[in-house]
Amino acid sequence: MSKKILCAINPFSGKGSSKSMLAALQAALPSYQWVVIASDAPSYFTQHIGSFIKPDIDAIAIFGGDGTMHDVVNGLYQSNNLSTPVLLFPAGTGNAFNHDLECLDHLTAIERLKKFELHKIDLLKLSTPEQTMVSFNIIGWGLVAQITALAERLRIFGGARYTIASILKIFSNLSAFATLTYADNKESADFSFVLIMNTKHTGKGMMMAPYASLSDGLMDVLIVKKTSLLNLLFLFPSIYSGKHVHSKLLEYKQLSSITIAATDGNPLTIDGEVKGSAPLSVSVLPLALTIIK
Fold this sequence. Notes:
Number of helices: 8
Helix content: 10-25%
Distance between the termini: 18 Å
Low-confidence stretches: none
Order of helices and strands: EHEHEHEHHEEEHHEEEEEHEEEEE
Strand content: 35-45%
Shape: globular
CATH architecture of the largest domain: Sandwich
CATH class of the largest domain: Mainly Beta
């Protein structure tokens, strides 16, 4: 059956493949109707996509990376349109969300749009003193956020920028003092990083949270206290396989909420975007977003 699809394009994402993916989609489904909108500034979809959601729109096809998905999902959250199904075409450099869904090329995405199988997934609600937003992928504080911030400046290296940034920042071995509150526990210490995951993957295929599920009502939280450079050098290579969860350096918890009280002034990384700073509180919004899977 023919459908009407709202296409949200980030022409600057990844290697600029969004337009070619859209053309392939339109050629594969010639009977469908298309409404195409393109981002021309950061947070464009957060601010404007709600005005494009009409009763006859069947779904939103997103062309970009995890940052574009974050922009669209927050637009849907703010306009009370989270029930509108979304499908992310992997046009970014990392595509962490698509690794979880095993949808790593546009041909697979086209087939999923044809089948139109709907699923509900959790979102993470994030609150800081300045703002409230949602995350579908990751929230990072500390070293992991610093790695993302550096990777943004290394876009010339494509997907390899995450690995390069990781190596460079690990050698700085920075840490910060914080108080974590979760499940009636309070823990104060110097931490290397705290990573809050909704998905299994982050970056370009790094399996940071191998036990994570998109629909279990829990966030997977990885906590690493301040440690030696040598320990970090041993820890990070195992991230690609998920074996790092067995390290004594790391605490792995599944929680419904967590608060990070810190005043280090360093930015957060949220769904691959560098924005906001601690203190922050995070809670799960169970089965809040509809996706095509």
